[in-house]
TrEMBL record:
GO MF terms held by the record: dTDP-4-amino-4,6-dideoxygalactose transaminase activity; pyridoxal phosphate binding
BP term (GO), one: polysaccharide biosynthetic process
Active site: 187
Keywords recorded for this protein, A-Z: Pyridoxal phosphate
Identification of the protein by name: dTDP-4-amino-4,6-dideoxygalactose transaminase
Residues spanning the signal sequence: none
UniProt source species: Sediminitomix flava
Domain of life: Bacteria
Keyword Repeat: no
UniProt record similarity statement: Belongs to the DegT/DnrJ/EryC1 family.
């Protein structure tokens, strides 16, 4: 077998509708720039399906997070609590505005942030708490919202991976004061690059539209509320082109089918694991499965006891043609941040950095491939 993996970790799924809607935009009847027919359709989809007060399409989840930092008037001296086990954008958006980032640890038994760790970091300077629903699995939002509301701190859900996820019957992204989604090609619903800002606290809506439109009141002008538009606040260029939102709408219309396919793949992985462990084929240092529920079938990952076994599994899977990948490296230990970090050791964030492995997950992972992959992983 060849040394380079033939089965990639991720493969973008196309519904076929993307090209149709892009063709519609190209017909010349519609505008090409942002906030057109398709952007509005995508926004209503989010508002109606997930109970979000106001949704605004953005060029990425990273940019939606940057909008949150602007909306909260984050400035030098403010503190923002962020999990260390997350993507760099979660922290960068606030660091860009001069905030002091206070990194929280993961739970001992899940990559999601530990509310107790958040609690220990709250000071009078805390302006925001950002949570990340890892693999679409919900953080303990009751504990986090209660703590934040008591101290009048804003909560932002980085729901980049969490579309269709829910917490006690509420859609993820509809609970925090603000939330952000990603449509990067590695996410369940994608348009190459794209994102969305979800506003659940209505107080932020008007200003968010200004920040979104380069710091102008153009949105109000387009709605006929003012007779011209001008510079009224800070802002930037956060609107995606209609080509991107048309593509995205072609995915959103098929969301139930896309999710069904992903859940099938997830269930096959689960079954493969169960079958192999039933047959007592697992060795002592076999990886463990901690996902009890499917959540939104964003990914399938396993945990090893130590980094060496995890790294060996990556090499072994590669030799069998499967591309398996680790995930975040704790941000407090990153090249950029480690010399600035003053907090305690974050042992669980570090554990997930070192020991977590994600398996190939996409629509082309059929039953045979999944079983082969799990078999190679368990070295049977
Ligand atoms: C993917 C991801 C992002 C970044 O999303 P972009 O749309 O690529 O900017 C941010 N946070 C988390 C948790 C992610 O998984």
């Amino acid at each position: 077998m060849s040394n380079s993996p033939q089965i990639p970790f991720n493969k973008a799924y196309l519904t076929g509708k993307e090209a149709l809607y892009i063709q519609d935009v190209l017909s010349g009847e519609e505008r090409l720039s942002g906030n057109g027919k398709y952007a509005k359709a995508c926004q209503s989809f989010f508002e109606q399906r997930y109970g979000i007060k106001k949704a605004l399409m953005t060029t990425s989840c990273t940019h939606a997070l940057e909008m949150c930092a602007l909306l909260l008037d984050i400035e030098k001296g403010d503190e923002v609590i962020i999990p260390s086990y997350t993507f760099v954008s979660t922290a960068n958006a606030f660091a860009l505005r001069g905030a002091k980032i206070r990194f929280a640890d993961s739970l001992s038994d899940h990559p999601n942030v530990d509310p107790k760790s958040i609690h220990s970091l709250i000071t009078p300077k805390t302006k925001a708490i950002v949570v990340v629903h890892y693999a679409g699995y919900p953080c303990d939002m009751n504990a986090i919202m209660e703590m934040a509301n008591e101290q009048e701190i804003c909560v932002i859900e980085d729901a980049a991976q969490a579309i269709e996820g829910n917490y006690k019957g509420k859609a993820l992204g509809s609970i925090g004061h603000l939330a952000t989604f990603s449509f990067h090609e590695t996410k369940n619903i994608q348009c190459g690059e794209g994102g969305l800002l979800a506003i659940n606290d209505a107080e932020f809506i008007e200003r968010a539209e200004v920040i979104w439109e380069k710091g102008t009141n153009r949105s109000a002008f387009l709605e006929g509320k003012v007779d011209h538009y001008e510079w009224v606040d800070l802002g930037s260029s956060y609107l995606p082109s209609e080509l991107n939102t048309a593509f995205l709408y072609g995915q959103l219309e098929e969301i139930d089918n896309i999710q069904l396919k992903r859940k099938e793949v997830w269930n096959v992985y689960k079954r493969a694991f169960e079958q192999f462990s039933d047959e007592s084929l697992k060795s002592d240092n076999s990886p463990i499965l901690i996902q009890e529920e499917i959540s939104n079938a964003h990914m399938f990952y396993v945990l090893f006891e130590d980094k060496e076994s995890r790294d060996r599994a990556i090499v072994r899977l590669k030799s069998k043609g499967f591309q398996a990948v680790f995930h975040y490296q704790s941000l407090h230990r990153s090249l950029y941040f480690k010399t600035k970090y003053e907090g305690e050791e974050l042992q669980f964030a570090d554990y997930f950095s070192d020991c977590l492995l994600r398996l190939p997950f996409h629509h082309e992972m059929n039953e045979d491939l999944v079983f082969q992959c799990v078999e190679s992983l368990l070295e049977i």
